[in-house]
Amino acid sequence: MPDLRRTVAIVGAAESDEIGVVEHKSALQHHAEAAHNALEDAGLSKSDVDGLFTAGFSTLATGEYLGIRPHYTDTTAVGGSSFVIHVAHAMAAINAGYCEVALITHGQAGRSMRLRGAGGGGGFAEPNVPGQQYESPFGLIGPPVNYALACTRYMHQYGEDRTRQALAEIAVSTRKWAQLNPKAMMRDPMSFDDYHDSRWIVWPFHLLDCCLVTDAGASVVVTSAERARDLRKPPVWVLSGAESHDHAIVSQMPDLTSTVSRVTGPAALQAAGVTHDDIDLTMVYDSFTYTTLVTLEGLGFCGPGEGPDFVAGQRTAPGGDFPLNTSGGGLSYTHPGMYGIFLIIEAVRQLRGEAGDRQLDNPKLALVNGTGGLLSSTGTIVLAAD
After folding, report:
1. Any idea what DSSP says for residue 317?
2. I need a labelling partner for 82 at 20 to 30 A (CA). Which of 242, 245, 270, 330 fits?
């Protein structure tokens, strides 16, 4: 594999103008606002963009709506990890000379579409046909049920009580970060009692184990090292990227207690030339508290079944020694259906020193891991401050 460290940088990152419950805007409006804001953040205009990346919508539709005619286009769609994977694809495309300024954009009216009875666009670009045929007739319908099945196996294998406490630790610590983020949808305090007393969704998940459903857009801009040096904000360097998936429907998941982050995490760290101990900030997809728990193990921060001990004692909360999901995550900040791009935005802000009350003390390296589908796909990137 060629050494592409610091050959490209993220130079713009932003959400759409409004996130949360935004009933008067379409998904494409969120795309457009986020794209405009990210380009403004970078000091670029849409006329500079020659690479367009998105998932869930075709780049035909987004390009037309945005008024962009790209020289390179990528609609890789493997769920919420897609946008993290797009960063690595942009790095490859820029180094190959296919484009110079890559715009990765996303928008979903996940909450408002459900309120209007139009469906939420749950993060898949096309129907999960095998699931409809072989799983749905037996009640495996929708992400909560599928993820709950995996979590139930984890509890059986590693202990119900210690797993439950780990899920509570993750929910409570993530809410503490959200309280420091003025853009977070859920900012009310959450106690452990609040977590345990919240209503059941599907056992073993309480309401507070599950991500939000919001309306939101987000965008990041990736460009070459040469161009990045001349732009408005300090570049955030892309050191590496890795991607994989190992199943589509959950019944075909090789191990319900282990995601394919066990492949992408070590690969991204090795390509970046860094170790776990070098990472100052970890941003992982938290569609459910279980997603966070099993991803930390897969990435190699701890061993299989060791996650409950790793997150104990609010270690991942503000003031803890392992900063995790400092925006408030999909659990408390925002989650319109596919969330991975928001992980990147928070990592960029932290590495630039732009995170306000939740700002970490001079972080230099961030690991970002997106999960997509039904614990199906992961993309991992390592980012560095200038």
Report:
1. S
2. 270
Task: To the nearest 10°, report the CA torsion of 292, 298, 301, 302.
Answer: 100
Closest residue by Cα to residue 295 from 367, 187, 205: 367
Q: From the centroid of its chain, how far is CA 244?
A: 15
Residue 131: pLDDT band with limits 50, 70, 90: confident
Conformation bin of residue 31: beta by default, left when phi > 0, alpha when psi is -120 to 50: alpha
CB of 216 closer than 8 Å to CB of 109:
no
The reply to whether 147 belongs to the active site is no
Q: Using one digit for the tens of pLDDT, what is the confidence trace for 204-213?
A: 999 999 999 9
The DSSP code for 84 is H
Structural contact between residues 286 and 185, judged by C-beta atoms closer than 8 angstroms:
no
Alpha-carbon span 329 to 333, nearest angstrom: 5
Query: In the predicted model, is pLDDT for residue 121 greater than 50?
Result: no
Q: Which of 147, 285, 290, 339 is catalytic?
A: 285
Helix (H, G, I), strand (E, B) or coil at 185: coil
Query: What own/partner pairs with CB < 8 Å and gap ≥ 24 does 123-131 have?
Result: 123/56, 123/79, 123/80, 123/337, 123/338, 123/372, 123/373, 124/77, 124/79, 124/373, 125/55, 125/56, 125/75, 125/77, 126/77, 128/248, 128/249, 128/374, 130/248, 130/249, 131/248, 131/249, 131/250, 131/374
E strand intervals along the chain: 8-15, 51-53, 72-74, 101-109, 200-202, 205-206, 215-224, 236-245, 281-284, 365-372, 377-384
pLDDT tens for 200-241 read 999 999 999 999 999 999 999 999 999 999 999 999 999 999
Contact between 230 and 43 under an 8 Å Cβ cutoff? The reply is: no
51: left (phi over 0), alpha (psi -120 to 50) or beta: beta
**Active-site choice (154, 158, 333, 339):** 333
Known catalytic membership, residue 285: yes
Tokens for 54, please give them. Answer: 């998105």
The token pair at 325 is 């999901």
164 CB-near residues (< 8 Å, 6+ apart): 155, 204
